[in-house]
Amino acid sequence: MSVILQNDLIDSVANALQFIACYHPRDFIQSVYEAYQQEQNPAAKEALAQILVNSRLSAIGKRPMCQDTGIVTVFAEIGMGVRFEGEMTLDEMINEGVRRAYSCPSNILRHSVVADPDGSRKNTGDNTPAIIHHHMVAGNSLKLRLAAKGGGSEAKTRFAMLNPSDSVVDWVLEQIPHLGAGWCPPGIIGIGIGGNPEKAMEMAKSQAMASIDIHQLQKRGAKTHEEALRLELYRKINEMGIGAQGLGGLTTVLDVKIASYPTHAANKPVALVPNCAATRHIELTLDGHGAAAMPEIHLDDWPEISRKSDGTVKRVNIDHITKEQMADWKPGDSLLLSGKLLTGRDAAHKRLIDLLDQGKPLPVDLENRFIYYVGPVDPVEGEVMGPAGPTTATRMDKFTPRLLEETGMIGMIGKAERGAATIKAIRDTQAIYLIAVGGAAYLISKAIKAAKILAFEDLGMEAIYEFEVEDMPVTVAVDSKGESIHKIGPEKWREYIKEKGCAACSGQK
């Protein structure tokens, strides 16, 4: 019998969530660095470099690696010989740990959870409640596996009830191109096969939190059907040439993890859950001897990347940019932006469109301005702004054509691809769409020299800010002629991989 004290459990959860917000798992850093060393596409290589630099800076500064500090998922394996001492239930203790972690004044984490999801969508204010899965197991300890899962990768979750004779490989390969770049590749793909719908999804989510070991599996070879599927999917997904941030390249996935479970003879449930470049997870064990200890941090685990310019990076002052100057920018061009830009996400865009519908003036003048799709982390002492990486631009597509056509806005910054209607509007108005690297939020925040709220302060992190930036790194994604890097990049590198063979894919030598 083990007696686990209430405060020990709460402290363990709080400490773990603070830890994973700032520190990548070691296996992830090693895998990204291998991909960086092998990458041949300069744009993708720069994206991987920014992810690695950002990760090291976050580890040193003890600040979140991504502004989207996620919704908390917990897998609790409760030993039959465990007893809890305290007034709270297990779920209440876990949620109290979440509350303390996300409200820590020395390292503020963004509150991203909203209640009444189909109604008011009001922020809960402390990132609770967590999503908790319970399993009773043999033993005298409590094992907790915690993840902080960002909304961009969660939005790309897929599920299907296949027929028994259908190919899982074919279904997965059909899904991957439709995930786009919003899940911030490269990352891990978790797959659950069998059980029923909720079991398949739970397995996939659990597998997305597993350690990266695909290279070890490649060396020893598959011993099970699931292992053979992993190797086949890892190779075939990377052969698609989607690459880091969807820019085209050799590495789209770092690993494919698969779990299966017996299912009804008439069914084959399959779930797919991607884990992004800000992968955050940890495993804790409590056995009645105090709070769980966090892993030791060794900065030698992080490579020191020297991001030397090859002379092709353009410095741009967006305060004085013209459409004629932007017309020279091509998909894949690397830019360093300086000047003043506005911010805005879903809620702010909805309010702007509502005001246009009502014929009312907008609270900000968008003419000749750039808008950055971001919901930043609040700053702590000494910071102008907390981590401020891009959110998925696709969600703004329903609003963008009208803003471009009716407000004089000329540029947008986000992550991932744009839809056909938005690309047409960009072309028709000679505007531009740029991307920042998802998974480089702390690095990007270093470019923000001043920040102030201009409108919709009640929206919290979704308010409209004005950022003054200096040398903010971005890549041209859709140029003023409507050419998209997310289309031409993967096409080019898919052909490159096809010509070079499997050896071109990451980790295959």
What percent of residues are in strands?
Answer: 15-25%
Oligomer: single chain
Shape: globular
| CATH level-four homologous superfamily name of the largest domain | Fe-S hydro-lyase, tartrate dehydratase beta-type, catalytic domain
- The pLDDT mean sits at 94
* Total of helices: 15
What is the SS-derived class? alpha/beta
The strands making up the biggest β-sheet line up spatially as: 14-15-16-17-19
Distance between the termini: 50 Å
> What about the largest sheet?
5 strands, mixed, barrel
Number of domains: 3
Gyration radius over CA:
23 Å
Name the poorly predicted regions. none
Explain this structure to me?
- By secondary structure, the protein is α/β, with parallel strands linked by helices.
- It folds into three domains: 1-149, no CATH class; 151-277, 2-Layer Sandwich (60s Ribosomal Protein L30, Chain: A), CATH 3.30.1330; 314-478, Fe-S hydro-lyase, tartrate dehydratase beta-type, catalytic domain (fumarase, Alpha-Beta Barrel).
- The protein has helices at 6-22, 26-38, 42-61, 90-102, 151-154, 168-179, 197-208, 214-220, 225-238, 323-326, 346-357, 400-407, 420-429, 441-445, 485-500, and strands at 2-5, 71-79, 82-85, 114-115, 122-123, 131-137, 142-149, 158-162, 187-194, 253-261, 268-275, 281-286, 314-317, 334-343, 370-372, 411-414, 432-435, 448-455, 464-478.
- The strands form five sheets. The protein has a five-stranded mixed beta barrel. It has a four-stranded mixed sheet with strand order 6-2-7-12.
